[in-house]
Design brief:
By secondary structure, this protein is of the alpha+beta class. The chain has one domain: Thiol Ester Dehydrase, Chain A, CATH 3.10.129.10. The chain has two helices and eight strands, in the order αββββαββββ. A six-stranded antiparallel β-sheet has the order 1-2-6-7-8-5. Strands 3-4 form a two-stranded antiparallel sheet. A hairpin with a 3-residue loop joins β1 and β2. The longest helix has 22 residues. It is globular. This is 3-hydroxymyristoyl/3-hydroxydecanoyl-(Acyl carrier protein) dehydratase.
């Protein structure tokens, strides 16, 4: 996985509709039209922590926000305001391991299809280069 950071916490937060304490992405490592690599360092203030373990809901939210970051950055590059997006569906999510406090997770989003504001993506999340979660999501942009 990539080590250099393309966008830091503040820039990432400006591209997401979510605000603190609900932001689950704090860096972007890479971006292309069809892919994005994002990350999150899990801090003690995180609302999805329980007994120093990052919960399944937090991982899924991190995955969804990684997709939102791809859309937000796409609109940012066009100098346009990104519309709000919604999760249309979540499919085949597999969570193999839960990260702990102070871990940094990294997700790779691959755009499979994009049509009329509906985007189908494949997402894989890693911890120290070990795959800990994967799945597919369909997101829908508000009109």
């Amino acid at each position: 996985m990539n080590a250099s950071v393309l966008l830091e916490k503040e820039a990432v937060e400006n591209l997401l509709p979510q605000k603190f304490p609900f932001v689950m992405v704090d860096r972007m490592f890479s971006y292309s039209e069809t892919e994005l690599s994002s990350g999150l360092n899990i801090q003690k203030e995180n609302i999805f922590l329980e007994d120093d373990t990052f919960l399944e809901a937090g991982l899924i939210e991190h995955m969804a926000q990684s997709v939102a970051l791809h859309t937000g950055y796409q609109f940012f590059l066009k100098k346009e305001i990104a519309p709000t997006g919604y999760i249309g569906s979540i499919k085949d999510i597999q969570i193999k391991k839960l990260p702990k406090i102070n871990d940094t997770i990294q997700s790779k989003v691959t755009i499979l299809q994009e049509f009329a504001g509906v985007t189908l993506v494949d997402i894989v999340t890693f911890l120290n280069n070990e795959e800990i979660a994967n799945g597919q999501m369909k997101t829908v942009l508000a009109k």
